């Protein structure tokens, strides 16, 4: 016969085992919509987008799983969060530096893109239209390929801007993001040249080159290039001056500057610049 104390201990042990078994039976499984974060520098601005990636799994996505005309979390699980370290513009709309939840309203031909200042929600929890910071429309296109997983990309990076793409199944939506780099660079140029009066040939060259690349005020860029050449007639300064003269239509002046650039480059054994200048001279001579 079992002693009552032993009997109680056996019963306790069996109860403990029965309670532990379900916990032991739990498996660690991959998340069905794995989270990810993308980071991209645009100009001086760090752009970060944190989101989760649901899969198609044979389902009809837009107009099915994601109804047309209704607000969507633009991903899965927690709300998608977009962060920028400087003010930017999205599709021409100003967006201050900070973190925002990204929501969308998909339709067959266009989507409404929404940036909202509430960032602590799961899905649509806590969303209130009064907290919207930016709203705009973006065209919905057919994607170049099929996207099994919802995918956000930052592509087409040129100068101080790029495009944000929202891709899933056979649908792709994109909109431009432009950084404030141009304002920052221009402010520095004006401060150092016009206020601090720095007489540095490299500064005038960089300012002229920036304006040339940005296709800004050719007359001003040419004045800065001329000042750089006056302070230091380096072959690369002369080469930029030649290209700016050609942009104004002064091909005779451009050829003369390019010839000086080629001669200076030859002396310093920069044969690539010699070749480039000679090619431009031949091209401009045809326009005289």
TrEMBL record:
Signal peptide residues are 1-25
One Pfam entry for this protein is DUF2911
Q: What name is this protein filed under?
A: DUF2911 domain-containing protein
Highest taxon listed in the record's lineage: Bacteria
Q: Has the keyword ATP-binding been applied to this entry?
A: no
Q: Which InterPro entries has this protein been placed in?
A: DUF2911, TPR-like_helical_dom_sf
Keyword RNA-binding attached: no
Xref: Gene3D superfamilies: 1.25.40.1040
**Which keywords accompany this UniProt record?**
Plasmid, Signal
